[in-house]
Design a protein that fits this description.
By secondary structure, this protein is an alpha/beta fold. It has seven domains: 49 residues; 86 residues, no CATH class; 48 residues, no CATH class; 139 residues, Immunoglobulins (Immunoglobulin-like, Sandwich), CATH 2.60.40.10; 150 residues, no CATH class; 263 residues, P-loop containing nucleotide triphosphate hydrolases (Rossmann fold, 3-Layer(aba) Sandwich), CATH 3.40.50; 209 residues, 3-Layer(aba) Sandwich (Rossmann fold). The protein is built from 28 helices and 57 strands. Strand 11 and strand 12 form a beta hairpin. Helix 5 crosses helix 8, helix 8 packs antiparallel against helix 10 and helix 10 crosses helix 16. The protein is globular and about 135 Å long.
Amino acid sequence: MFRLTAWFVRKAFEKSSDQQLSLAERIKQCEEKLQQEDEESKEIKAEIVKQAMEPTDCFQTTGTITEVKADYFIIDGIYFVPRAMLKNTEAAKHVEENTKLQFLANRKTDPVSGEVSTKVVKVLSVVDNVWNHGAAAAEEEDWTQPADTASTVTYFKKNRRREPGTVIGKDRDILTVETDAGDPISVNIDKTSMTFVPALGDYVTLACMVQMDGKFVDFKGEVLEVESIEPSRIVNGTGVIIALEEDGGEIRTTTNGTVIFMVETLTDYRPGKGDRVEFRAVENKHVRLRCINLKLLAAGVTKTLDMATSPSHQTNETGRGSVRNGSDERAGSLWADKHGINITGDFDVTLKDGQDRELRKVVIKNESRKQHKILKMLPPRSEAPQVCLKSPFAHTQSYLFPGESVEYEFEITGAGLFGRNEESCIWCFGGSFRIGRIFRITVGQETSNGKLPTINTIGSNVGGGYNGKSSYCKKQLALLNMRRAPGPVLNGPRIGMRANFIANPMPSYNVPSELYDLILTSPSRAEVCNALERPPYCLSEELSPKNYARIKKTLIHLEEIRLQIEFRKHDLDRAHFTPEESFLALEVANIAEARPSILVGDCVRATAPWTNDSTIYQGVIHRVLHSRVLIKFDQTFHSRYNGESYAIQFTFGRSSFRKQHHAIKRMQLTHGLEYLFPERINVQEPMLNVRLNARGELVLEESMEGDCTKGRVLPWCNAALNRYQKQAIVNVLRGEARPMPHIIFGPPGTGKTVTIVELIHQLIANVPSARLIVVTPSNSAAYLITERLARGGVLEPGDFIRLVAMSQVEREAVPEHLAQYCATVDVAEERSTFGDVLVTESGLRMKFQAKHIGRHRVTISTCLGIGSLMMMHFDPNHFTHVIVDEAGQGLEPEVLIPICQVSRTVGSVTLVGDPKQLGPMVHFNEEQTWTSHLSLLERLLSLRLYSIDRQRFTGDTAGYDPRLVTLLRINYRSIPNVLSLYNDMFYDSALEPYVKEVADEDIQLLGAIRDILKLPKPSDSSEDSRKGFFFCGIDGTNKQSPDSPSWFNSAEACMVHKIVERLYRGERCGPADIGIITPYVMQVRSIRRTFDAAMLEPPKIGSVEEFQGQERKVIIVSTVRSSSAYLAHDSNTKIGFISAPKRINVALSRAKVALIVIGNPKLLATDKTWMRVLQRALDDGTYCGCTLGSAILRNVSTATRREGNNLQRQYDDDDDEDDEYQY
């Protein structure tokens, strides 16, 4: 027993000893490991300190305060420190001159200008041996340190870090973000890259440059600079707007709950309740998801109004009337016979014109076994009814015994209207029941089914009609055959001699063969789009500096291919030439009006495929006349031509496409493509330190800190400028955000051209080194600026020059009174040509070289025309300023042509235009999301820096940063009522009318229009007499000719003619005072024929594009379309008015006094924009014409409420069963 006990004790002791030994070993191992880690840490810290001793951009040093101001102080005369950096400590109150501070600073070099700037990141301490307030210093031990410990410079490495945070403050230029790193971080919005406009509560991620400091565990010290701010999370999706307030609304989604949006973040889209939208949102502390981008997918209003379901289109076999079908039993009971009462008659009426009239009899017969009483007849309720009761009186009461009948006689007139219309008559009977009938009236020279003998209408296949798809395929095949069967080419002489030596020749930039094959061999456009969205093209990618050149160059190639396809419509299978002077003339009907346009300099290829001659004879077009072109081939072709027939193919010059390609290449070298995607503002000292004083005078400040009321007053060349125009000029002259483009946003009639001319005058007068390039996309606008400068009398003829293309000279398109200011360009290098500048009799100068152009202070041309200067040699800083007028109408690569010719370091770019009106014309527009249709102006305004931010920018800025965008707000064109229409619809009511009171003669004109449209004429003193917008509803028929995709509407054409003819007769307006806008060429011709037949001088009749930038006292808009068929095709091809807000805006904003819209309200009401136009006419009481159905009135809420009240008041003595019948 004893031995057993001893054994257990020995074993327990041995086990305890083993455990103690194991524990001791583990402790020893841990100590060794900690010692090793400590040594490694010391080595890392020593390495960091060793590295930091080498000079870097981040350093810690000591300096002396040399200047103290209220909000800041200066250290060592160079380091700027805001007082806020002391964080409101006690030390901040006692800082004064000669106080020494230890601080952390960061040095940065601008990558473009090379300018070095140093920013104080943090004040670390106050050196105590020079602290003059001991008591205060004693309380601030953390802010003081001995002088001997702060006398050296310590350098630190830098590293990047991403820091999540929440926006907790926004004060104009400063954004305050709360992070987990410590104190909130203040971010300068202008100097920080952002892809969106942050709002309070947004969850964001900061990309920071931080100090590497060995004193911290993770070696990460102070935040030196915030490089960019991004949303912590972006949520994309679709939803439906379920709530809408004045300043914002709510979107309901299926996967992300609700999303909140603010109206101020929207640009072109005005939301409506029920709209289906595509959104982009960021996470927000207060509202969970905040929308930052919104795009309409489908409007909430009824998009399909079935015209075939109205009572007028459903007659019974006897033709006695109409019975309404559908779920609305109340409506059905109104139009049906009931209680044994039958109403019969011929309710379809066709009149030759608006002055024609016919009589119709309606018989009411009692076929029941009991007596009925007719209480009254309710006539049509329109102001100028087409159906008038002749006998008996409407309120005549009569008894109908069984088998008896009574006869009502009606007179139906045209009432000055055209097209189709419906008017309702309702009989009220004793016993509280009613029976209604609808007269269907057609006025004009079309049959009841809307067809003309030689014209095909929608739904008719007689004669084939226009087949857009087969026509496109035919042209596509012709181009493919043209490429696959080349032969030897014999070229004709060019217009002008080709330069042998060019300083900077442009490459050819030919279309890649694989892209040709993709477009020409794909069986459908959908497959083309799918292929272009895949590598290597990837056109659906969001545009960025990395993919910009690839995407834009591909889009330019696609545009060239599509234009070549469209040019095939001009080809002739067999034609012959006629000798004329030194040319061969080719007869082509209406060639001057052809689209795409045939221009001087384009080429004609003549081949004879039915012979053994495979030679391609290529001639150059020297003149384009109305129905023929004059061509020069090679002289051998001219000499042996003997009337043979040839197959003709037209080709165009490629110089415009080559210039666009070359501009992109030059932008990469001169500016860098990041210039086109600005993310931050590098604020510069003012180029010209000018301000506006209280009297609107331009004051040049003598000192940067001086008061703007002191200094030298610079005279305005045009003292009539308004305050917004003056402010735009001041903002450009200051140029604090240069080299970023400044945008002058000029809505219709706000004086953009006047502002540009004054800006040119001020730059030339006050910036001695300025040399300007002034360009526009169109020749007409360039001539207008030239004319204004010539008439201004400020610049001498030698100060400015208008460069024109040779095609302008050959077409004799140069205005004679401007010829002395114009010149053509010779791109040949100096000394490579002989002869001086040639001057014509009109003063036009030919063959201007670089040495001649360089002498002028202002060079005016088109965007493409100025591209010739890229092939010349100029010093990098030769041109200093670029002004682009109508910048919204130019393709982005076109606008880059002038921009790439100024230096980024000294250049100033100003874009003037209106992104809400017509944009660039593109031929390849298969996919709207590819941004090919966007101008540089519109794209910049969609970026964060150029967007509206009403929290930061208040007052007259309309929410734009005045350093980047100036909005011109005073409209000189329209009377207040007309202005308010497009102002409210497209410009958020930002415009102000210059014309406050309507002139007496204009009131009389509006009264005459009311008489013509059969509207009640108010007294001259009433507000209604000053309403200038009218909507005339015409339910006509849109037609096509068999060989054209264009549309025309005879009823609308007749109505247009009637209005103009009556205005002529009353001597209220002449042809120069009226403009007629219609989107279709065939309607232009149809309207013009009505004037020719009446032997009247027509006013200007044209498309929206022809009226852009113009104005007339009276504008008449013919919308043409009355059928929803092919509306999608119209939208894709950028014609027509449906679903085209920019085109609608241009059409509505041309009128000075009166705007008359003529169209089919049943179709137009399917479009959200037109719905608002119609609603406005109903609100103003200026609608006339065809009857509006209840479906339209339900969508037009304001009109529905008003008319519903009227109906209730009129029929309050009847029962409520059938209150609604027709408006």
